[in-house]
Amino acid sequence: MIRKFDFLIIGGGVAGMSYALKVAQSGKGKVALVCKTTLDEANTAKAQGGIAAVTDRLKDNFEKHIEDTMIAGDYISDRAAVEQVVRLAPEGIADLVKWGVNFDKKEDGEFDLHREGGHQEFRILHHADDTGFEIQRGLMQAVRNNPDITVLENHYAVEIITQHHLGVEVTRRTPDIECYGAYILDPDTQKVDTFLSRVTLIATGGTGAVYATTSNPNIATGDGIAMVYRAKGTVQDMEFVQFHPTVLYNPQETHPAYLITEAMRGYGGILRLPNGEEFMQKYDKRLSLAPRDIVARAIDREMKIHGLKHVYLDVTHKPAEETRHHFPNIYAKCMEIGIDITKQMIPVCPSAHYMCGGIKVDLNARSSIRRLYAVGECSCTGLHGGNRLASNSLIEAVVYAKKAAEDSIAHIGEYTFNDRVPEWNDEGTMTNEEKILIAQDMLEVGQIMSNYVGIVRSDLRLHRAWTRLDLLYEETEELFKRVKPTRDICELRNMINVAYLITRQAIERKESRGLHYTIDYPKHAYDQ
Question: Is 123 a catalytic residue?
Answer without folding.
Answer: no
